[in-house]
Amino acid sequence: MPREKVTLDANEAVADIAYKLSEVIAIFPITPSSTMGEWADQWAGAKLPNLWGTVPSVVEMQSEGGAAGAVHGALQAGALSTTFTASQGLLLMIPNMFKIAGELTATVFHVSARALATHALSIYGDHSDVMAARSTGFAMLTSRSVQEAHDMALIAHAATLEARVPFVHFFDGFRTSAEVNKIERLTNDDIRAMVEEKFVTEHRERALSPDHPVLRGTAQNPDVYFQGRETVNPFYAATPAIVQKYMDKFAKIAGRSYQVMEYFGAKDADRVVVAMCSGAETAEETAKFLMNKGEKVGVLTVRLYRPFSVEHFLKVLPATVKKIAVLDRTKEPGATGEPLFQDVVAAIAEGITNGTAPFKTAPVIIGGRYGLSSKEFTPGMAKAVFDELKKDTPKGHFTVGINDDLTHSSLEYDADLDIESPKTVRCVFFGLGADGTVGANKNSIKIIGEETDNNAQGYFYYDSKKSGSVTISHLRFGPEPIRAPYLIRKANFVACHQYSFLERFDMTRYALPGAVFLLNSIYGPEEVWDKLPQEVQKDIIAKKLKFYTIDANEVAQKTGMGGRVNTIMQTCFFAISGVLPRDLAIAEIKKSIKKTYGKRGEAVVKQNFDAVDAALDHLHEIKYPEKVTSKLTRRPSVSDAAPKFVKDVLGQMIIFEGDELPVSAMPVDGTFPTGTSQWEKRNIALEIPVWDPGTCIQCGKCSFVCPHAVIRQKVYDPALLKNAPATFKSVDAKFKEMPGTKFTIQVSPEDCTGCGLCVEACPSKNKADPSLKAINMAEQPPIREQENVNWDFFLSLPEVDRTAFQPTTVKNSQLLQPLFEFSGACGGCGETPYIKLVSQLFGDRMVVANATGCTSIYGGNLPTTPWSQNKDGRGPAWSNSLFEDNAEFGLGMRLTIDKQTEFAQELLKKFAGQIGDSLVSEILNADQSTDAGIKAQRDRVDALKKKLADNKDILARQLVSIADVLVKKSVWIMGGDGWAYDIGYGGLDHVLASGRNVNVLVLDTEVYSNTGGQASKSTPRAAVAKFAARGKGLPKKDLGMIAMAYGYVYVARVAMGSNDAQTLKAFLEADAYNGPSLIIAYSHCINHGIDMRRGLDQQKAAVNSGMWPLYRYNPALVDEGKNPLLIDSKDPTIPVSEYAYKETRYRMLLQSDEARAEMLMKEVTNDAAKRWDLYKSMAAIEYKAKNPES
Amino acid sequence: MIDLTTQYLGLELNNPLIASSSPLSKKADTVKKMEDAGISAVVMYSLFEEQITHESLALNYFLERGTHSFAEAATFFPDLDHYNVGPEEYLSLIQKIKSSVSIPVIGSLNGISNAGWVRYARNIEQAGADALELNMYHIPTDVDLAGRDLEKDYIDLVKEIRKQVRIPLAVKISPFFTSIPYMAGKFVQSGANGLVMFNRFFQPDFDIDTLDVVPTLQLSTSNDLRLPLRWTAILYGRIKADLAITGGVHTVEDVIKSIMAGASSVMLASEILEKGTRRITELNSQLLDWFEKNEYQSVRQMRGSMSQQNVSDPAAFERGNYMKALTSFDNRILV
């Protein structure tokens, strides 16, 4: 069977092999490996058989630890089993990996290698995860490219069966895992020819079976454990040869030859670089470039990293080598060098010692770090390493790719070195996530790869925002193989798909002289030139760029594509680039549209066809003058008013120039200032809400639900309006606590995402025109500047004195300053309004432990953070530990606060003489149940500090240093359902059981939102999710019920779109309850497939259907003789289906498998009814007041 | 022997009771139950032009929205192999129903534009439908759209559908034409074999507390029969097409009135939805009783007996009767 050429990424290429060679696949989502699991799940759902004709069993586990355990069990029972993971996920697998290797069990774990969370989490690629697992006993096979990842996956699976040593097969996360490249797909015959059935049989024969029982997993004592550990030596000794045997076999089958240690370069090289994965490919291409210039250089790629074969290593190393640089894509602080460096040093030392080295004198060996967290590793950097080796005393322990101005480890490099073939066409596209640019470019690269003889490569960069995110696509194609695993810096084609980027980013810097610059312009061909910033005009003229424009937005609007300009821009790209004849290109685009969208219906195909057909009529080449004519300039990254750190550091990251920041610019311990999102001003909304004071009833609902805290309200002294801008609006305030004041609702125009949730929440309609409410969406550009001025004036008005009123109503609560603002969450996010509310109520005294997930990304992903501060410099203190340990992490914070409070109280008594008995007594007995009480306590603590200011006693100093804990603190443990229901559940359960005063907020989206919607145990029956493609067949876990079972945990289930007052009450009660509290908050989500603007309606429907009953379980009521469970919602009034079928996650099952959808809908309806009846009966139980004498 | 058989669109029916286009045909089991209860034919629920387009675009929108925007989540849903967003599901249901019942099955298309969707008519025919009912439902809101232009669109659409299929074609019309007989004639000339009277327009209501327009769906009552009754009586004998009455047929008297006006069949939905399929059996049995008691031999005999052509006072259907009706109210005015 001929092998087809396919254009895909490494995750798919690897999953393809792993799936075909497995019977049991245990998965858990973690970036960037998730799609391997998703492919496996999807193929199993589609009943795709493996090599032996059976459909593998794919099971999602609660964590990577669980996945490894399941694989271990499956292997023990005789299955061929695999899993996919990365980063922390691999760390969670380590205990089982030791076991699996110790028991000599054949398996392959495929790892898209990723940075570990240290001073910060990073989802990007390096080898710190696999290096942390190098002592497990797993063999480690590496891949440098998409094709190699496909090939090595097969070699690993084949070799492990014979070697009995389990394998980690790893490749660079993102750089390889997500790179789209044209490869040759191996056929089933190829795979079959590689795997020796004899070893499959032997694997099965070692299985645990009561038919031939054995005991495995014993406990051993000092007498024999050591000897037992040494029994595996022959297996490890044999593994490199076995791997080489399968590599040789593979070469015969597929024609691609690999070596466990592979050398490329001059036979008489004096300088050699040793590396693994994609960095080795760049080094090799650079060596080729240098050799053409007569340099004697070479690259040794370590393909089999463990077992590290000294023999193979020394065999390929040229005898002429004088200097070696070892590149590690990891960092091991405090070590004598990074792991690969140490291995190389040890190997050569051993070779010289035992005489197997090809030289008598040891070469100079230096080690260096590169590419951490997908930091670029370019030919310029590789050359810098070769150049360093030319020096008499090359720098050891160097870094390359950064500017280390702190310890001066970095090598200088030529950022402009370009070694690529001039025949390779390079294209860079700037787009918005929402406009479909990346999707279209993936599609283009597939068309080029599969419909032409060209080789093709695509790589996609994303910023970390979930709304208004910027994407940069890097596409290469040409007749020669593309071995360039780094971003394009010089392009033949640069496209800007969003006009607003012109004022933010320098895009033409990517353009080569004479390149094409394609702009999606809101201005016509006659006027566009004068609307470009001066910097852009200058660059276009200087580089003599061919300048094209198209009003893709107009075409998209006319053809019903909305904001998705993807196929329009794609058509222009093909038309201008000439990669295919125009008619053929259009035919191919249409073919691809039909393939991608055909199953979604003809209307979709037609819409896209219309857009393609209309595109070229709107494409214009612009002839421009040879001088700069524009009056406009690019905007600064942040306002001049921003603090220095924001301007100098965060501002650079905002405009994608963070790579240029030196080491000294970064905090040493990952600590960053809060309150920085206010400077980012992303200006992404096309429409923003505008307040109509005449219709407003000052209920606060718009502000309450605003996910981005861009709608604020204030009550203030009318005299302050004296200097108000002309268009600033105000009305008499309707707050009984503050008579004679004025009231304003103000929107921040450049922070708003335009989600419209506020308009949906507004209950007040204009009586003359009910289509209008008290807040209405209006086009942003015409009012942007005016509202900026109004916003600045609004900020200058004083915040409302929080001691002057009680925040017990929705209306009042919205007078409190949000200390969580302008996050990069999805427009209309269902989670952030809850977080913002917590920050309003308790922000100036709260500590947050945040589980990894959406919340930690929009909360803590650089460059800026929405966590903010008030004018006193108080605000939430926030940290993220891991995904799995968040409850314990928060408990630790509580334990410290409790301990220090106790200690402070002890010291208070000790120093009562100096402090004064009455102040001590007041502090110890303070009522801190209100903001006024807290303010009074803060004043007392200030007084205490003053009294002890001059006391030099160690304990007095200790008291001063911890005295702030005497002011009540609120510990909030936050995360999503993936954390609370699955990976973190064991810890959460323990923390709730601890009885400590922590507040747990579960933002329940009913899927793993951050990684793209994989099913969790919170996913309801009948909903489709990744890993539950046929609709989840089992009901949602009732976390609240489990917590209630303790009897002393405050539990609330809330949905602010259904009952905002109940939500507010629950948060206040949870904080007030002196024990563990759990709030489970319905969070509508983009993963539900809903119109996000109607998210609140869906919350209401969820409650009205009985799918999301609202309740509060307050153990404090038991003491009052009351039933602790209060049900806050009414008997269901609509069928579950009426709620569910408004969401794509349910509806798509109906549209794909109606019979199953109907069956599951019946069952989920039953689930809801049963749960409702149970709650009702629990709430009806009569409680008696505790008898004080009993 | 009383003969309840009738002919509608050239189809031989056991009796005049047809299940009209409604959710009753969404399941093959329900259609089978109706057949067992004595229904003589079933009109399928309507395949809506807008629904097909909307479902397709909506599905695509929600599957695509936000994708490829964020490094950790390129997509949000698994990409399933197949979606029933086209007419396939509808067509396979017709096939399923046809294989499980022996009564005629009439497909139903609902739309107004003369666009690509009209080929679904052919698909319905290929799926095995015995006839097709075209439901034209349009609420004009454009002040510049002349009635004659709209009427032309209607007529063109009937012609286009006629081209697509060879099976009999019924057109379900609205009662809001300036001249119903003229339009009825045009539809027949354009290829309609039968007319169904009338479309029920769902009239929205207002919620005066929330200032919302509230869509309402109310089942018909016998009072709704008057309108189709009059126009059936007027049209009977004047056009060469079978007439069917739908909307307001609940009792045996309603059935008899309809036949007397000239309908060759009556279509029921509300009555079956409210009371179940057993109501079909009851109505058939009551129909026989009535025929027997009143010494009618057959539906053919009764059909059109009270049409305008046949009644002793043809003006009763015309403007003069309106005056009479108003006068009858005069006596009841209390002030």
From TrEMBL, chain A:
<dbReference type="Pfam" id="PF17147">
    <property type="entry name" value="PFOR_II"/>
</dbReference>
<feature type="binding site">
    <location>
        <position position="762"/>
    </location>
    <ligand>
        <name>[4Fe-4S] cluster 1</name>
    </ligand>
</feature>
<dbReference type="Pfam" id="PF12838">
    <property type="entry name" value="Fer4_7"/>
</dbReference>
<dbReference type="InterPro" id="IPR037112">
    <property type="entry name" value="Pyrv-flavodox_OxR_EKR_sf"/>
</dbReference>
<dbReference type="InterPro" id="IPR033412">
    <property type="entry name" value="PFOR_II"/>
</dbReference>
<feature type="site" description="Important for catalytic activity">
    <location>
        <position position="1010"/>
    </location>
</feature>
<feature type="binding site">
    <location>
        <position position="854"/>
    </location>
    <ligand>
        <name>thiamine diphosphate</name>
    </ligand>
</feature>
<feature type="site" description="Important for catalytic activity">
    <location>
        <position position="114"/>
    </location>
</feature>
<dbReference type="InterPro" id="IPR019752">
    <property type="entry name" value="Pyrv/ketoisovalerate_OxRed_cat"/>
</dbReference>
<dbReference type="InterPro" id="IPR017900">
    <property type="entry name" value="4Fe4S_Fe_S_CS"/>
</dbReference>
<dbReference type="GO" id="GO:0030976">
    <property type="term" value="F:thiamine pyrophosphate binding"/>
</dbReference>
<keyword id="KW-0479">Metal-binding</keyword>
<dbReference type="GO" id="GO:0006979">
    <property type="term" value="P:response to oxidative stress"/>
</dbReference>
<dbReference type="InterPro" id="IPR002869">
    <property type="entry name" value="Pyrv_flavodox_OxRed_cen"/>
</dbReference>
<feature type="binding site">
    <location>
        <position position="755"/>
    </location>
    <ligand>
        <name>[4Fe-4S] cluster 2</name>
    </ligand>
</feature>
<feature type="binding site">
    <location>
        <position position="702"/>
    </location>
    <ligand>
        <name>[4Fe-4S] cluster 1</name>
    </ligand>
</feature>
<dbReference type="InterPro" id="IPR050722">
    <property type="entry name" value="Pyruvate:ferred/Flavod_OxRd"/>
</dbReference>
<keyword id="KW-0408">Iron</keyword>
<feature type="binding site">
    <location>
        <position position="706"/>
    </location>
    <ligand>
        <name>[4Fe-4S] cluster 2</name>
    </ligand>
</feature>
<feature type="binding site">
    <location>
        <position position="114"/>
    </location>
    <ligand>
        <name>pyruvate</name>
    </ligand>
</feature>
<dbReference type="Pfam" id="PF10371">
    <property type="entry name" value="EKR"/>
</dbReference>
<dbReference type="Pfam" id="PF02775">
    <property type="entry name" value="TPP_enzyme_C"/>
</dbReference>
TrEMBL record, chain B:
<dbReference type="GO" id="GO:0006207">
    <property type="term" value="P:'de novo' pyrimidine nucleobase biosynthetic process"/>
</dbReference>
<dbReference type="GO" id="GO:0005737">
    <property type="term" value="C:cytoplasm"/>
</dbReference>
<dbReference type="InterPro" id="IPR013785">
    <property type="entry name" value="Aldolase_TIM"/>
</dbReference>
<protein>
    <submittedName>
        <fullName>Dihydroorotate dehydrogenase</fullName>
        <ecNumber>1.3.98.1</ecNumber>
    </submittedName>
</protein>
<dbReference type="GO" id="GO:1990663">
    <property type="term" value="F:dihydroorotate dehydrogenase (fumarate) activity"/>
</dbReference>
<keyword id="KW-0288">FMN</keyword>
<dbReference type="Pfam" id="PF01180">
    <property type="entry name" value="DHO_dh"/>
</dbReference>
<dbReference type="InterPro" id="IPR050074">
    <property type="entry name" value="DHO_dehydrogenase"/>
</dbReference>
<comment type="pathway">
    <text>Pyrimidine metabolism; UMP biosynthesis via de novo pathway.</text>
</comment>
<dbReference type="InterPro" id="IPR005720">
    <property type="entry name" value="Dihydroorotate_DH_cat"/>
</dbReference>
<feature type="domain" description="Dihydroorotate dehydrogenase catalytic">
    <location>
        <begin position="84"/>
        <end position="287"/>
    </location>
</feature>
<dbReference type="GO" id="GO:0044205">
    <property type="term" value="P:'de novo' UMP biosynthetic process"/>
</dbReference>
<keyword id="KW-0285">Flavoprotein</keyword>
<keyword id="KW-0665">Pyrimidine biosynthesis</keyword>
<dbReference type="InterPro" id="IPR012135">
    <property type="entry name" value="Dihydroorotate_DH_1_2"/>
</dbReference>
<keyword id="KW-0560">Oxidoreductase</keyword>
